[in-house]
Amino acid sequence: MQLNLIDESAYAQTMTKLVRPALAGCRDEGWFNPAQAEREAGLTPRGGGLHYLCYDATKFDYEREDGATAVFRGAIVISHGFTEFAEKYDELVWYFLKSGYSVCVMDHRGHGKSARDVDNPSLVWIDDWHRYVVDLAGFARTIGQQYAAGEPINLFCHSMGGGIGAATLEQYPSLFDRAVLSCPMIAPQTGMPMWLTRALVDVLCACGMGRHRVFGQKDFDGVLDLGPYQLSSEPRERWYHQLRCNTREYQTYCASFEWVHQAMRMNRAILKSSACAEIETPILLFQAGHDIWVRNKPQNVFVNRVIDGGGQARLVHIADSEHEIFSMPNAVFGPYLEQVLAFFSAPMIVASEE
């Protein structure tokens, strides 16, 4: 279907007066308790709920928004990126709802309004990367399936959320019907060789520095730095920044050494050929030509190993995009969104039995 993208010249006004009121009319807010899922996976629950926002496509249709389809297509679970939060995806949720999908977005542990294990609101820390995966799977199997209502349940991931998503597809191969990995963190960009990063963070964490902020990063100070977003849509970036300024829980901004340590461990696990061969969910992976946050080569390796293992995976390289493709100007974002929606709505290919 053809979607009319928000006019960037009136972006904040449209989000304030049209998009957010419509989303509020079909939104449910809650807290998912991951304890049972974590215990079943052999993890010790750390306590606290994981905040989520869910949007009901049926209620959205009642709003009679222009361009909304009357066809219910199932649900999309969104796995957000590092230092992000559910509300950052309001615009994308709007388009998914218009296309007939209910949407479920959970703040990962240590992000947004979810439970966190450090006092500094700017700092992201996790004790074990498996916790991200188990939490996402538990959320999708319960809340996500509820909103799918017997129709397909799909996964949309970005950056860190894409690394979590890839690992989830490996460990829970029958959970999702389709998955879009947008610039997934198969491996983070650390500014140094991977082997050196691993060695350094291993030593620092062993010396008790795991909860310390990574060198060179800083706490959130409210200043908008558009330096890393030269190609991105400035109205979108300013909107995200204002959301962060307005809500203290959205001010996660920097990594701890333990988070980097766990990201390195997740990277190794994801790229194991045996793990890639477990994937049954068809994957569409988007890669940005100007990505300074995650490495592109490991994404290529991941896709090739999924295919070699008998899975379905396709890589789309967008040469003129930065890391957040959904934050690019409409000229880039539009074709990207069309491919995402076409992938989710394409007829399922069922293997014949011989």
UniProtKB/TrEMBL annotation:
Residues 73-326 form the Serine aminopeptidase S33 domain. Signal peptide: none annotated. This is Lysophospholipase. InterPro entries: AB_hydrolase_fold (IPR029058), Hydrolase_4 (IPR022742), MAG_DAG_Lipase (IPR051044). Pfam families: Hydrolase_4 (PF12146).
